[in-house]
Design goal:
- With about 325 residues, the chain is an alpha+beta fold.
- The strands form 2 sheets. Strands 6, 7, 8, 9, 10, 11, 12, 13, 14 and 15 form a 10-stranded mixed sheet that branches.
- Helix 2 links the parallel strand 2 and strand 3.
- Helix 3 crosses helix 4.
């Protein structure tokens, strides 16, 4: 955003809520003097103070072009979400054919799924802040057909170029949960910063899953005792066939921390599995035609015909 006079800059700044700012001067010999004048002008006209480390707005004066450039920094909201239904991706999946433009393949929606966790969460905060757009940063992601239950998955919603910053997060949380009722719920919302995004993107944490598995034959109680062989073991997983089209084919080594099983029906078993971040749990169960070793299917010598997966705990420190 560009302004060509201090009065115009004042009008543009009035569009935004901010309490901290930073002023920079480009292409000027008397940078200190110019910066001081602009800082004084903003302090006199707005209830804001200079901030060098993490300002909400940055104003840059280009001396040669005689114009002011306005950079509105993002607003970050941390929270946790539960995904209560299957069939919803975490983030927006643009159509592969048209890349979001809209075509016959995606029914002119520009995306492959009607909604996502991101869309269900971001709508209310975007409206409240009058932001230009939003980015969704999650601590990992669950499969589209898996639910995210238990203590919820940590996330940061980044609002890009917000006009309103000082929103009531309790009210926002309530409105999100009303809008996304039955599909997604959020809790523990609080303001964060860009360092939280970096932490969420870099941290590796264990996860606990609950899997309900139907096999192609009856399973006996004594057979399930063999499953304990996996506990404390390092398994080797080639990239699953289902994601080979978008991920490199390589071998991952992951530890299975805990595993327990319970017979629910003659051919239906409930598994509770705690494992390292990055473990492909469906393939741990199915074996993925030998691409994961060892696996539940290999140990039981039985083929899973249906797997329903829930994430029930993220072992993080947030």
């Amino acid at each position: 955003m560009i302004a060509y006079s201090l009065d115009e800059l004042k009008r543009k700044l009035k569009e935004y809520e901010f309490r901290t700012f930073l002023v920079g001067v480009r292409n000027g010999e008397k940078k200190v003097v110019l910066r001081g004048k602009i800082v004084k002008f903003i302090k006199e006209n707005f209830n804001a103070k200079p901030e060098y480390n993490d300002p909400e707005i940055v104003i840059i004066y280009d001396v040669h072009r005689d114009r002011y450039e306005l950079q509105v920094n993002s607003l970050y909201i941390f929270g946790r979400y539960r995904k209560l239904v299957r069939g919803i991706p975490q983030t927006i999946w643009p159509c592969r054919k048209c890349r979001g433009r809209g075509c016959k393949y995606c029914n002119y929606k520009g995306k492959l799924y009607d909604t996502s966790v991101q869309e269900l969460i971001q709508r209310v905060p975007l409206e409240a802040t009058e932001g230009r757009d939003a980015k969704f940063h999650g601590l990992g992601r669950e499969d589209i057909d898996a639910r995210m239950l238990g203590n919820g998955r940590p996330f940061v919603l980044e609002i890009i170029e917000p006009k309103r910053r000082y929103i009531d997060l309790k009210e926002i949380e309530q409105k999100i949960n009303e809008f996304a009722r039955g599909k997604v719920e959020v809790f523990n919302l609080r303001f964060a910063d860009s360092s939280t995004v970096r932490l969420i993107k870099s941290v590796k944490v264990d996860k606990t899953y609950l899997a309900i598995v139907k096999f192609d034959r009856d399973i006996r109680e004594e057979e399930l005792e063999k499953i304990k062989e996996l506990e404390g073991k390092i398994i080797e997983q080639h990239t699953p066939r289902r994601v080979l089209h978008r991920r490199a084919d390589k071998v991952r080594r992951r530890m299975i921390k805990e595993i327990s099983s319970r017979l629910l029906n003659k051919n239906v078993v409930e598994f509770r599995i705690t494992c390292e971040s990055g473990t492909y749990v469906k393939e741990l169960i199915s074996g993925d035609e030998g691409r994961t070793k060892p696996s539940v299917a290999e140990i039981l010598n039985a083929k899973p015909v249906k797997i329903e997966l829930d994430v029930i705990r993220i072992h993080d420190l947030f």
